[in-house]
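User: Hey, my collaborator sent me this sequence without any context and asked if I could get a structure. I don't really work with proteins. Can you help?
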Amino acid sequence: MSNNLTTLDLLVFFVYLIGVSAYGFYIYKSKQKAEQSTKDYFLAEGSLTWWAIGASMIASNISAEQFIGMSGSGFKVGVAVAAYEWVAAVVLIIVAVFFMPVYLKNKIFTMPQFLEQRYNSTLSLIMSIFWLFLYVLVNLTSILYLGALALSNLIGGDSFHTIIILLAIFSLLISIGGMKVVGYTDVVQVVVLVVGGLVTTYIALSLVSTKFGLGGGAFSGFTALMEKAPDHFHMIFPKPTDATPQPEVDKYLALPGIAMYLAGQWIVNLNYWGCNQYITQRALGADLHTARTGILFAGILKLMMPVIVMLPGIAAYVLYKNGSLQAEMASTGSFNSDNAYSAILSFLPNGLKGLSMAALTAAIVASLAGKVNSISTIFTLDIYKRYLAPEASEKKQVWVGRLTILAAVVLSVAFTWKDLLGIGGEGGFQFIQKYTGFISPGILAVFLLGMFWKRTTATAGIVGILAGFALSVFFNEYAPAVLGRETLLYTAFPNGKGEFEIPFLICMGLSFAITMVLMIGTSLAGPAINAKAIDLNPGMFRVSRQTMTLIVITMLLLTALYVKFW
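Assistant: No problem. I've predicted the 3D structure and written it out in structure-token form, which is a compact way to encode the shape of the chain:
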């Protein structure tokens, strides 16, 4: 089927563009003040409701890496990739109950501010720089690349670079108005991406049902998926042996069986949802009850995300293996699993293709806007205000924030233009998880010990950040060559390139465990009293009846899902 969009598709898509832009402008004008403060611009001055916080977190999280990258991973490995989403639901409960009280009690606006308040300014500066490089070089570039890849496949022609520019401009229009505009437009974006995503999933399952003569229904299509690709409906992959085929080894390298639940999955998610400015910023301006309710609402929404972002990939796999989607999966010149989502989109009927394109664009733009707003917040409050212009007025800081947004977008476009980082080489979703994981173990260790062990010293914090990064580089890049293929700590496996590597989720676990030991040892060897300990008391972690109800609902739904697919 042709990828060309009809007039109806374009009409639906432009209604979305104009609607979101008009709503964002309305929010900006209705909440505009004569002189905007930094708290108002960066944190929405506490005006976001619980449903806006939850929706904004999901809209910013479900980006091109999920729609495109996770569908690609669904094509390759199946339902096991949903572990990222379902473990996140549990982690959001932990963040709501234990992390948010610490941040709000101590009036934390940014993650580097927490590090300075708990440890010292040196650690805060180190991490500010780390985060800025990570957000621009890994997150922004991958979102732009994957988003432009999918949309150009859908539109057809030589449109990749044009789409990069248009996505960058649209995200600038949304983010330049500050967190209020980002937060409230995200509510619209999440509705569009959920509705559009569910429509795409329904069509994908119907295509499978029709392919095998089952009548075209979504339920029969899902049944066909389980029958035709039973290997794609297992949460746990067995540890490979020398006789294991390379495709199965590759699955284990991406999702290393039960071991990932003992290490990497928790580190990835706790760092992302609890120690990440990009995500926590939505809740930092609210009161504790509103923040908790919003985060738990996001947790419930998270449970349904694999239906939207993973099932189309499995459907594409079944169709491809049975003779369909051959040209669509190779639309970029050669076979690429990240083409799975756009391959399904190409079969949507007129009008629905425009809706699904709007959903994909909503996910991309919401993530770009949220990310650049966080980059702006960290640079302005933790570097510019702290070191470059301590006397800068509120108005000047807001303008510096806007200029930072522009600079971040321009840099990310430059790196995406020729895929300078090689995002397309190993799958977009895995690229983001792997390279974010280079700093996740150290960050999580520093935050956990800083929050919940008063004995942790500032020296230990610096040791933790540097050691976590160095250990991640060592285990990911050098350990098999230096220590051998198999030790008491790990087993390395062939990666299809003539090299041996350790599953990166295992690398995270090893780096985290060793970093924790180093930090505890450094703290015990240092002074007995840490004068900069964060204010903690048992009453901070009590939850209301409403909060407990949301927690129980989330856990029951999650248990049902794991019982089904384990």
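In plain terms: DSSP finds 24 helices and two strands in the chain. You can pass these tokens on to your collaborator as they are.
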